[in-house]
Amino acid sequence: VKEARIHGFTTRKSSRLAENTTMGDIKNAVDEAKLWHEIAKEMQTRVLIKDRTYHFQTYKQCFLGSDAIRYLMDEGYAETIQSAEELGEQLVDRGLIVHVTKEHSLKNSDKLFYYFKDDAPFHGAKVTEATKDEKTAKPSTWTKLFQGIGGNTSGEASHQPSMVSALALGEIDPDARDKLQKLEISPLDKWNTELLENVHPLKWKDPKGDDKYNIVVIGGGTAGLVTAAGSAGVGAKVALIEAELLGGDCLNVGCVPSKAILKSAKVAHMLKKAKEYGITSGEAKVDFGAVMERLRRLRSSIAHHDSAQRFAELGVDVFLGHGKFTSKNTIEVNGKTLKFHRAVIATGGSPNLPPIPGLAKVAEAKQGVYTNLQVFNLTQLPAKIGVIGTGPIGCELAQAFARFGAEVHMFLRGETILRKEEADAREVVMKSMAEDGIIFHKLIKYKSINLETPADEKAGKPFPTINIELEQNTKTLNVAVNALIVAAGRKPNVTTADLEKAGVEYDIRKGVKVNDKLQTTNPNIFACGDCASKYQFTHMADFMARLVIRNALFFGNGKASSLLVPWATFTDPEVAHVGEYEDDLKKRGVAYDIYKKSFNEVDRAILDSETSGYVRILTKAKSDKILGATIVGSHAGDMISEISVAMQYNIGLGSIASVIHPYPTQAEAIRQAGDLYNKTRLTPTVARLLRNLTAYRRS
């Protein structure tokens, strides 16, 4: 009975199967796809199926979760709600029933709606084992594939030696092996398995395709996903094509994983500084493997937002394959030709490998060279790390790894970092990074990069030794590291979609050529995101996509030049900026005023011991019209939005000063900058009049 109940059954139901059925027979029967089909088929005749509405959304021909649970209990399949829900989870896993938005397994709720398999109006779907002859079927999901060769998807181990061995010996289905090697997701634990299930299902079934689409999108990163979801939401027939991982860089190898490890690094830093806050604790130790597992767990927990299944349920035809233009109005993917009224190129960007002698060779050997595509796969901390690139990505990763305990070397061609930011901001951040132990090698020239000794896992040497030969002040300098992070800029992905066949012009460095409405040289094709913008930010890709939807589908006249673009670098302290810099205004000959408030004058920052940094706001001369702003501080990325809103809606700095800000908060620094402006309005003449007025009232 206990064994049967594990599968959500009771002995009463087992007696219905056969009078002489044994417990072992029950277990075997439960594992048979035929039995699950019979349960679902019988349930379909017993629950009320009809159109239902929730939050203004109507779902066709669905049933209530509570009705299904009641049926399973009334018919003796389960004695308790819990066991009925467990049985329901099995039905969901086998694809026989599905929640209308694929967000829940079967629950005892009258507010959760479900489809039977044949009633689900989805476009494209995961292939399930229930649809195959189980004796001959290849694994249909990553989870089943990994379990089938003894892989561990429980999350208890970081590595799967059996999987690595199987890959090396060619024991895995060639299609799955090729996908794994191309996608570069590692280690193959529970969390990365869940990620893959969402953003690149192993056996995704392409939709049949339509005669003609309103819009076809190539690229499933932020720009492509927003375009597809938004277009489908207004009734357009949409196809979305992605060759690798849905979610693009942001979810998989960019914003999401980087911010996860930055938080862990900040916690490690705070623990080391605990005594400054009057807290005494034991020595803080960084478990780097646990840090990276947290990253993978959190990333997988939000991956469903970008999943193939979710977008299929939104009404988008999702194709997982390589899309190429075949004419000015057709795209081919996986052997199918898609005709379009409009198309969108959202192919994103990729890390640039600078032409340093020897670098490409070491990278090709996969010996310790990491871009953002590989660095989040690490499970062990390299002892010594070199960083090529002094922009936001290089600085964020350098500081994080230094705080985890690595010896970090940064190589500067000049004398500073974050060259696009103003000098004061660079100075504050560089000082903080130096305090974290980062070693800056300034005014260098790269001579060569060579692999001195390769990694040898069996000998207990997980990382190689890489020698970086530099020239500094006419002298040769050699720096040996175990890992080399390359963050030397990005390049647009424009050479793999046969843009020429569609009449689309591009530059391999600047990206797809677009006008202010984001139209390419083919007026029926638009481009947005990193492949078509100098602002390579997720939020910019998002808003470019919104612009494309209006312009491509509804004869809109939105202009990219009208977008106000803030950005932030998440070092500690953070640097955030919006609008113009002083150098920009000087070049344009615009007169301006500066209002600056340092955090060492802000009560909350003093109490938090976060006094490094400032708020600096530029206004038009003798006016409160804001032209630009830079914030350097622990919460700069959050604070910059207040100024962005003010600029977007032409709210002056003086007006910000009239808005009550909670005390004590670090955002008060912005209001206090407004106070500085208002003080300038007190001219000598006004001051004299006020003195005379108050004197008169005293008399």
Can you walk through the features of this model?
This protein is α/β, with parallel strands linked by helices. It has 25 helices and 30 strands. Strands 7, 8, 9, 10, 11, 12 and 25 form a seven-stranded mixed β-sheet that branches. It has a five-stranded parallel β-sheet with strand order 14-21-15-16-17. Strands 26-27-30-29-28 form a five-stranded antiparallel β-sheet, sandwiched between helices. Helix 5 (65-74) crosses helix 6 and helix 13 (255-272) crosses helix 17 (392-404).
Mean pLDDT: 89
User: How would you describe the shape?
Assistant: globular
Number of H/I helices: 25
Main beta sheet, described? Answer: 7 strands, mixed
**Backbone structural class:** alpha/beta
What's the number of extended β-strand segments? 30
Radius of gyration equals: 30 Å
**Low-confidence region ranges:** 1-31, 127-136, 150-165
Q: What portion of residues belong to β-strands?
A: 15-25%
Distance between the termini: 99 Å
Helix content: 25-40%
Could you give a short description of this structure?
With 699 residues, the chain is α/β, with parallel strands linked by helices. 36% of the residues lie in helices and 21% in strands.
Task: Give me some keywords for this one.
alpha/beta; seven-stranded mixed sheet; five-stranded parallel sheet; 21% strand; globular; disordered N terminus
Topology:
Blueprint: H1 2-6, H2 11-17, H3 23-30, H4 33-44, E1 50-54, E2 57-64, H5 65-74, H6 81-93, E3 97-99, E4 113-116, E5 125-126, H7 142-148, H8 161-169, H9 174-183, H10 190-199, E6 204-205, E7 213-218, H11 222-233, E8 238-242, H12 248-253, H13 255-272, H14 288-302, H15 308-313, E9 316-320, E10 324-327, E11 330-333, E12 336-345, E13 349-351, H16 359-364, E14 369-370, E15 384-388, H17 392-404, E16 407-411, H18 423-435, E17 439-441, E18 444-453, E19 465-472, E20 475-481, E21 483-486, E22 490-492, E23 506-507, E24 511-512, E25 525-527, H19 538-553, E26 567-569, E27 574-579, H20 582-588, E28 592-598, H21 603-607, E29 614-620, E30 626-633, H22 636-648, H23 653-657, H24 668-680, H25 684-698
Parallel strand pairs: 7-8, 7-12, 8-9, 12-25, 14-21, 15-16, 15-21, 16-17
Antiparallel strand pairs: 1-2, 2-4, 3-4, 5-6, 10-11, 11-12, 13-22, 18-19, 19-20, 23-24, 26-27, 27-30, 28-29, 29-30
Helix pairs in contact: 5-6, 10-14, 11-19, 13-14, 13-17
